[in-house]
Amino acid sequence: MTVFTPPLREMRFVLRHLAGVERLAELPGLGHATVDLIDAALDEAGRFAAEALAPLNAVGDRHGAVLENGMVRTAPGFAEAFRKFREGGWMGVVFPEAYGGQDLPWTLNTALADLWNAANMTFQICPLLTQGAVEAILHHGSEAQKRLYATRLVEGRWTAAMGLTEPQAGTDLGAVRTRAEPRDGHYRLFGQKIFITFGDHDMAENIVHLVLARLPDAPAGAKGLSLFIVPKYLPEPDGRLGPRNDWRVLKLEHKIGIHASPTCALSYGDDAGAVGFLLGEPNRGLACIFTMINNARLAVGHEGLGLAERAFQAALAWARTRIQGRIDGRPAPIASYPDVRRMLLRMRAQIAAMRALCYWTASFVDRAARAADPAERRRAADRVALLTPVVKAWCTDLAQEVTHAAVQVHGGMGYVEETGVAQYWRDARILPIYEGTNGVQAMDLVGRKLAMADGRLPWDLVAELRGDLESVPGELRLSLREALERLEEATRYVQGAGEEAKGAAAAAYLRLLGHTLGGFLLARGARAAAGAEGGAAWPGLARFWCAHLLPETQGLLSSVLAGAEGLEPALLEG
Predict the structure, then answer these.
(1) Which helix (H) or strand (E) holds 425?
(2) 303 near 310, Cβ under 8 Å?
């Protein structure tokens, strides 16, 4: 097992030189978010991640969560770590002070998630879901719901889960059958949900489910869904816990990875019905839950970043100490060999590009929420909409590559559990599936986001990147210009394509966009690197990206332009 070292120098470099964290303090309500405060928060978070969370990562993998007498027990040490997490105020970093939060930027919270995920992704899944639920309640809840639920979720006394998926309703939420019957000023829910992450556990005193269900007179399909707050224990108006609600855990799923994260199959309403409280308007449940889902999609991209960082650290440490063969007559570590260096440098460049994209996107989240100028808020919100599927899908696809390469660098020792690197590979596999598969993200990008604002969003981004070309280091310019031209050609094709061709091109288009953006962000880092703390490697990483990853955009363009060619259904027969 390797020791996790928080990559604070790299994180600070990206925050300052790519996400512009110093300028975020100029936004209304963020004047207290000074660089000194952010640095202090990162120092403290790094210590907590390394000392409290990282040692539990392998423990959680070995022990997992278990269901005992109807109660879910988390792995040893998790409940105590969550208590310390709550006492540290980490759950409420971004939320309004009026509800117990600290009113700090989402950009800082993204950096914190980078640390939590690298140290122990299965632990971070619970805060991730809770923060998404707070967002949904603050955007759509009544003031009484905000005071009762959001304040306790922000504090970390309670946690939250999403109750969406059913055996017959995965991505197609319009097929949800759970029903909600109005009774005595609230609702009684009846139905089953599956794959409910942290649907039950022993780390908090109450667990709040946000559950999609149908009212008796609801229209069919997705337009007939409403969202309900369904707590484990029914609270009094002052927050004291009352009786146990009528839902129970049927089983925990046995999964490839994330063993410490309890994935529950749940039954609502085996007796009188699970008491639920309507969140938002009737039959507007999808609009409410997508506030949480969009938050979670960005957060799952951050999970990919964190896991990739942890896997890279393990691979680099192994490669520096594993002696195999001889060079110039002397025993040599495998890091001496060009192919191993290639794998390690590819991993590091991918992580730098992922971190840049995640933090940069988070800065637009803050601007969309807080900028004084409504037009700036709109532009920032549009940029978040365009980049969300890229953060989610591209970063989690790269996490597959990085964790796979980490096992490969370890050789045969990577294939056994003794070194621990296989856990990162197994844990990462859920990420392209979570919160809408990466195919769904690609379809969202080409089907919805490229059509928003009369198709303007990708061209605004292209114009910004084209403006970078004259200021990036000269040796990068040609490769970046060629990649940008490929992105332009692919965008024109996809925006004019029919539905079949658009769908066939979606995954390649998203990867082409991600690779191009990654190159430009690395180039920005290379431009800022001179004399900057944490920037020494960026010029070399940018050159590596242009030499080894941007050439892939040529093949991706060819795949996009092929459209649905060769996708004959008959080829799947016989």
Answers:
(1) helix 421-428
(2) no
Distance CA 257, CA 506 (A): 28
Exposure string for 483-522, b = 16+ CB within 10 A, e = fewer = bbebbbebbebbeebeeebbbbbbbbbbbbbbbbbbbbbb
d(CA 259, CA 59): 10
Task: Quickly list DSSP for 156-213.
Answer: TSEEEEEE--BTTBSS-GGG---EEEEETTEEEEEEEEEEEETSS-SSSSEEEEEEEE
The architecture of the domain spanning 160-283 is Beta Barrel (2.40)
- Give the angle 174-176-180 at the CA atoms, nearest 5°: 120
Structure tokens at 88: 């540290």
**What residue segments make up the domains of the chain, in order of their start?**
160-283, 438-566
Q: Are 106 and 177 in contact (CB under 8 A)?
A: no
Other C-beta atoms closer than 10 Å to the C-beta of 293 total 18
Q: Which residues pair with 327 in a beta bridge?
A: 330
- Per the annotation, the verdict on 435 as an active-site residue is yes
- pLDDT of the chain, 574 residues: tens digit per residue: 568 999 999 999 999 999 999 999 999 999 999 999 999 999 999 999 999 999 999 999 999 999 999 999 999 999 999 999 999 999 999 999 999 999 999 999 999 999 999 999 999 999 999 999 999 999 999 999 999 999 999 999 999 999 999 999 988 999 999 999 999 889 999 999 999 999 999 999 999 999 999 999 999 999 999 999 999 999 999 999 999 999 999 999 999 999 999 999 999 999 999 999 999 999 999 999 999 999 999 999 999 999 999 999 999 999 999 999 999 999 999 999 999 999 999 999 999 999 999 999 999 999 999 999 999 999 999 999 999 999 999 999 999 999 999 999 999 999 999 999 999 999 999 999 999 999 999 999 999 999 999 999 999 999 999 999 999 999 999 999 999 999 999 999 999 999 999 999 999 999 999 999 999 999 999 999 998 999 999 999 999 999 999 999 999 999 999 999 999 999 998 6
- Decide: helix, strand or coil at residue 47: helix
| CA-closest candidate to residue 294, choices 514, 138, 442, 132 | 132
CA atoms in the 13 A half-sphere facing the CB of 54: 24
Residues 506 and 456: beta-carbon distance below 8 Å = no
Query: Inter-axis angle of helices 474-496 and 457-468, to 10 degrees?
Result: 170
Residues 399, 308 contacting (CB under 8 angstroms): yes
Catalytic residue among 22, 155, 435, 482: 435
Sequence-ordered list of residues with C-beta below 8 angstroms from that of 224, at least 6 positions apart, any chain = 214, 215, 218, 283
Closest CA to 165 of 289, 60, 257, 47: 289
- pTM reported for the whole predicted model: 0.97
